[in-house]
Amino acid sequence: MNDIQPIEGACAWAGRDMAGSDRWVRRLSDDNIDELDRALEKVEASGLGWQEITAEDFPLTGMTHLIADIQNELENGAGIMKLKGLPVANYSEDQLQKLYFGLAANIGRPVFQNKRGELMRFIRDEGGDVGKRYGQIEGGEGEDKPFLSSYARTLNNGALRFHTDRTDVVGLLCVRQAVSGGVSRICSSVSVMNEMLKRRPDLARELFGPICRSRLGEEADTADVTYDLPVFGVRDGRFTSHFSMTYIEAAQKVAGVPRLTDRQTDALAMLAELANELAFDMRFEPGDIQLLNSHVTYHARTPFEDDKATGQDRLLMRVWLAMPNSRALPDDHRVLWRNVEAGVVRGGIGQIAG
Fold it and tell me: If you average pLDDT over every residue of the chain, what do you get?
């Protein structure tokens, strides 16, 4: 572990530079939108439900170069992409699901986002009882509120800390934006690791070792299903990071789980500080599609306020994609990803028979 080297390349960027760059932005052309509309007409005529649509059902031959560009930028470039210009107001909600899922199926392979087998999730404020529905730990001694699972936190209007999703690429289509807030914050996890190596290489090394996580809100309803996984990993010179403080904190509430050491605690705190320091902010507009490579980026969200009376109630459609050009992962990441070889279908939430 003493020979850890910085990772160079387009994936190692600072937010101040990315905020002023358009290398990660593409605009859908009129021809692109026409082709999306023709593909939508085809699947509507076939009677397919949105979750049944494959790339073969939703042909986008005129967008082959754009899709290849997106795949390459996500895996070999900055790891982020924003597509602009989808006229969401022209479609019903059902049509948008079919169109977005069909486009996503051309970019990658959708994988399950929860144990209920959902391949697309509406991300919006679902109210104050999300913990009861999506996972929580009742308040312990000195705690006046339940501890919400990561999944439950996503579905209220509060802030989200920097984290990764359990998929090669997460895609978010903005259908409606809130009246205020809901700003997306993005940083390069590669740059976070590189900067930690400069400032505190001893703490960087801590994050290449296993740290216990809980599957609360994923495969499990309770926090006591846990696993060990490093925060940082490298295989064949390619970086990956899987990080969410919520899963780590949930595991720390489980009896018998080793307590975080002081050095691990300091390393995780430094990671969060550097993520804030190196991030940039991006506000979604309706019709924007944000795509993030989870291996090389962290993302967060500011709190938001809805106003349903004016139609400003935030709604995003989320897909998780296994990518055909994905990187190989270290073998000790198999506990989370199940398959760690390059270009395979992996990630998502395992389905429990019952």
Answer: 95
